[in-house]
Amino acid sequence: MEIQYIKSAEEFEQIKKENEFLVVDFFSEDCPPCEKLAPIYEKMATIFPTVKFTKIFRQGLRPLAELLGVSGSPTVVFFKSGAIQEERLSGEIKENDLVFILEKLSGASAEEIKTEDGVRKTDLCIIGNGPAGITAAIYAARYKVDQIMVGDLAGGLMTSSHKICNFPSQTEISGMELSQMMADQVNALEVPQINARISKVEKNSTGYLLETTNGDQIQTKTVLLTAGTKHRHLGLPNEEDLVGRGVSYCATCDGAFFNNKTVAVIGGSDTANTASLYLAQVANKVYQVYRKGALRGETAWIDQIKENNKIQVIYNTEVIGLSGENQLEGVVLSTPFEGNTVLKVDGAFVEIGSEPDLSLINQLGLATDEGNYVITAKDQTTNQSGVWAAGDITNGSNNFRQIITACSEGAIAAQNIFEYLQRKK
Amino acid sequence: MSKVITLTDATFEAEVLNSELPVLVDFWAPWCGPCRMMAPVLDELSLAFDGKLKIAKLDVENPAHQGLASTYRIQSIPALKLFKGGQVVKEYLGYREKAMLGAELVQELDI
Ligand SMILES: Cc1cc2nc3c(=O)[nH]c(=O)nc-3n(C[C@H](O)[C@H](O)[C@H](O)COP(=O)(O)OP(=O)(O)OC[C@H]3O[C@@H](n4cnc5c(N)ncnc54)[C@H](O)[C@@H]3O)c2cc1C
């Protein structure tokens, strides 16, 4: 539908009376965010045929703008049956926000992206928005592949890393910052994204029907699974009861609550080592309990642990119990330490690695290795046609699970999916 | 779109403890990934439960808020605490999906 330019207050009143759903975009000249909005606004007018789309040059109808409380450009205001709505948008207006309000206003769903039955159709659905998913989305966007990325944490697992020193171009950066930078890049490419998880998968004649935790449905020709891994738990009987009462799986999230306290870190890999180093900055004392005789991972971290007099590593020892009812009081050790089997601590950080979640893997029918990692070929294909996997969830990259290898697998997968879709055309 | 209220130590009493409506308080911090995942879920629930439940958040990174964090024994975030009549009646630790948290709240609030 055509966008109508309103030139007078009388014209506005008339249009307001005649249209159940009305949108007004107050714009100005020499206004970059207004120019940015223009094509989006035009697109919306084609997607929502029941809504009347209008524009008002704000400086031309200043009294009307002021009456409506509009003091900047662009400002988009919405009317339903003549009544102004509470929601309005101004400044840098995002397409998603506009769609959201228009859907709510008109009760219609965005037709262009959804078919009549409410299912979104796409050529590629990327499951997960960690480094693997984001990199794949960047490549796919540049190949102009029709795609949707579904995930609930931009940056994934690396958001919980307090210091990353091995990603080229970043001498030292927090996981949160690097995640934000990656997310900004994919957002700038306007990759369609849904902030949710995929909960259900069904194979059909044209590909896969996916369902999100928000209830959205996506029909896709290809799937790229980059859902990463989830924290491994100790598996002790009272563990779940003590989560948030001393037991934690994320040192960067919860470390700050153990200021000047005594904590244990369980594990001996890079994640455990960095957790100890991070916690030593806040806690009084850090005991790192590890079942083997020497720490694994980067020598740079291990050297720092050895030099840090707040950290004491207890080798060849396993945590076999957690003491405390409503609050963790200590960890029970397999071998006594300084004569005691219970090591008194205020907090215990479980850093014994992570493993893939099997629910989607099984629903997709993917073959896995003995560690539940998806078996992928060099081109990131899996045993199911139309399904690729990349990042921590796979057995690729020589089982070296890092940001850079996740990115690399994401890039390879996107390129291979592009070629596959080209061949199918 | 969100109706989530941002709390401070100064407004906590009025907005939470003396609130007529039940209040779900999200103790969170910017450095915490799962807290970021929680935020859009709470934004959406704040619209869905509008008029029945207030949803509010308190940033525990702010040094001025650490007294409240320790009063409510926060040791892990995100920590969601449901207040009724100034008392904590239920707590939800760690990330929850929208449908799950929504269902739990409906049950808890009897609505
Ligand atoms: C504390 C810590 C420190 C680390 N430090 C470093 C370091 O210094 N250098 C380094 O290179 N690596 C480091 N790593 C490892 C690095 O974080 C991972 O290798 C990398 O994040 C893997 O990326 P990914 O995209 O494969 O998976 P992830 O980062 O795990 O991302 C998976 C994404 O999928 C989403 N997801 C899960 N299930 C679903 C679903 N059903 N539907 C939709 N989305 C879903 C998740 O929310 C997440 O966003 C560290 C890890 C930790 C925990």
Automatic annotation (TrEMBL), chain A:
<keyword id="KW-0285">Flavoprotein</keyword>
<keyword id="KW-0560">Oxidoreductase</keyword>
<dbReference type="Pfam" id="PF07992">
    <property type="entry name" value="Pyr_redox_2"/>
</dbReference>
<dbReference type="InterPro" id="IPR013766">
    <property type="entry name" value="Thioredoxin_domain"/>
</dbReference>
<dbReference type="Pfam" id="PF00085">
    <property type="entry name" value="Thioredoxin"/>
</dbReference>
<feature type="domain" description="Thioredoxin">
    <location>
        <begin position="1"/>
        <end position="107"/>
    </location>
</feature>
<dbReference type="InterPro" id="IPR050097">
    <property type="entry name" value="Ferredoxin-NADP_redctase_2"/>
</dbReference>
<dbReference type="GO" id="GO:0016491">
    <property type="term" value="F:oxidoreductase activity"/>
</dbReference>
<dbReference type="InterPro" id="IPR036249">
    <property type="entry name" value="Thioredoxin-like_sf"/>
</dbReference>
<dbReference type="InterPro" id="IPR023753">
    <property type="entry name" value="FAD/NAD-binding_dom"/>
</dbReference>
<protein>
    <recommendedName>
        <fullName>Thioredoxin domain-containing protein</fullName>
    </recommendedName>
</protein>
<dbReference type="InterPro" id="IPR036188">
    <property type="entry name" value="FAD/NAD-bd_sf"/>
</dbReference>
Automatic annotation (TrEMBL), chain B:
<keyword id="KW-0249">Electron transport</keyword>
<protein>
    <recommendedName>
        <fullName>Thioredoxin</fullName>
    </recommendedName>
</protein>
<feature type="site" description="Contributes to redox potential value">
    <location>
        <position position="34"/>
    </location>
</feature>
<feature type="domain" description="Thioredoxin">
    <location>
        <begin position="1"/>
        <end position="111"/>
    </location>
</feature>
<dbReference type="InterPro" id="IPR017937">
    <property type="entry name" value="Thioredoxin_CS"/>
</dbReference>
<comment type="similarity">
    <text>Belongs to the thioredoxin family.</text>
</comment>
<feature type="site" description="Contributes to redox potential value">
    <location>
        <position position="33"/>
    </location>
</feature>
<dbReference type="GO" id="GO:0045454">
    <property type="term" value="P:cell redox homeostasis"/>
</dbReference>
<keyword id="KW-0813">Transport</keyword>
<dbReference type="InterPro" id="IPR013766">
    <property type="entry name" value="Thioredoxin_domain"/>
</dbReference>
<dbReference type="GO" id="GO:0005829">
    <property type="term" value="C:cytosol"/>
</dbReference>
<feature type="active site" description="Nucleophile">
    <location>
        <position position="32"/>
    </location>
</feature>
<feature type="active site" description="Nucleophile">
    <location>
        <position position="35"/>
    </location>
</feature>
<dbReference type="GO" id="GO:0015035">
    <property type="term" value="F:protein-disulfide reductase activity"/>
</dbReference>
<keyword id="KW-1015">Disulfide bond</keyword>
<dbReference type="Pfam" id="PF00085">
    <property type="entry name" value="Thioredoxin"/>
</dbReference>
<feature type="site" description="Deprotonates C-terminal active site Cys">
    <location>
        <position position="26"/>
    </location>
</feature>
<keyword id="KW-0676">Redox-active center</keyword>
<dbReference type="InterPro" id="IPR005746">
    <property type="entry name" value="Thioredoxin"/>
</dbReference>
<dbReference type="InterPro" id="IPR036249">
    <property type="entry name" value="Thioredoxin-like_sf"/>
</dbReference>
<feature type="disulfide bond" description="Redox-active">
    <location>
        <begin position="32"/>
        <end position="35"/>
    </location>
</feature>
